[in-house]
Write the structure tokens for this entry.
Amino acid sequence: MKKAVSGRMPDAPEPERDGLNPREALDILEIRARESEDYIIRNADVGSAVFEYLAEYGAPATRQAVAANPATPARINRLLADDGVEDVRAELAAKIARLMPGLQDRESEETVALTIATLELLAQDSAVRVRAILADEIKHLDCVPHEVVLRLAHDVDELVAAPILEYSPLLSDADLMEIIAGGRVQQVLAAVARRRSLSENVSDVLVQSLDVSAVAALLVNPDAKIRKETLDRIVEEAEEIESWHLPLVRYADLSARAIRRIGSFVGASLLEQLAARGDLSEATRTHLNRRLRGRLEQDSDFHSESDSAAQIVSSAKAGGTLDDAFVEHAAVAGHREIVTLALAALAQVPEATARKILGQRSAKPLVALVWRAHLSMRTAFKIQTRVMKLAGRELLPARGGINFPLSKEEMRWHLNYFDIPA
């Protein structure tokens, strides 16, 4: 088959003189039609009427090629925005976005108006794929209407909203704070947290949302500005949120008070990193190293092969160290049996009952048992995450950061369910 040269239409394949059946004849006609359309849509000088005819009557692949052609008139682009085939509109979305830079300088008012109308229609397209392509193509542009960007930023699908929220230079702080206040899903808020040069006001609102992944993204964003008071709030909430521990330890601008507070709840390996920071005072470094030695010694006690869980708990009880710190550390280390026996001893319940509660995969009875044992809600949360390994939606966090989330009546009810008098 010959290619088109010097403006000539491509030659169709020569049909065989003998043995040509109707099916073969139809194949030849279809091949010739496709080649003719391909020739036309790839040449910019074919005329508006030809583009319009192909956009209305061409096959889907032809209409898709017309949508991709930069020479297609704006009026035809607007027509294709209503095309019933998603692939056509997707191709159009990618092209329209690429036409936007410098559009007003090189085109007439009518062409600009039609192109913007097409852009607005695509931003409202029923197909997520079309809107997502458009959002990804315009995410860095400052030459598109603010209303279009805002619509995409508010899109219910994260594939559409996230790139706009992370990159668009047209979103103001007020726009971002309004979106955060709307209680969007975590992937969308995390996209905001990753923006370059994020202001303190937006950081404040992100932290107020207490969205775990968004705050984690904020902490690792070197261009985000965070007020000291806002960072202090993150530190206070971080004890029960393990995914914040490493970003906090590595955060560049921490006060001595924040460093000591972080050192009180992170694991031994992170505590070691914290103590190795180059911006510590001698007093703070000494404090952290002392805490690290104590943590390592306790880890050594828990991992002693010569002692059973029962012996460890018994020794701690005899030595007066069977307390909240003991149970919390056992939970952080993942020692299920030590935690079980310690709870049984402190709550004065049979070991089998404590074991049954921890095996329920339900946070409420565990919280009630910890309350009966006179331990903290912080310890209850550590047991949920490290020992029971509950999923995020199954966790029962503290109320107000430190308080038990259940009323005394609720906790008594859960204890009575396991025949524990309360």
User: Anything to note?
Assistant: The chain has 26 helices and no strands. The two ends are 90 Å apart (CA to CA).
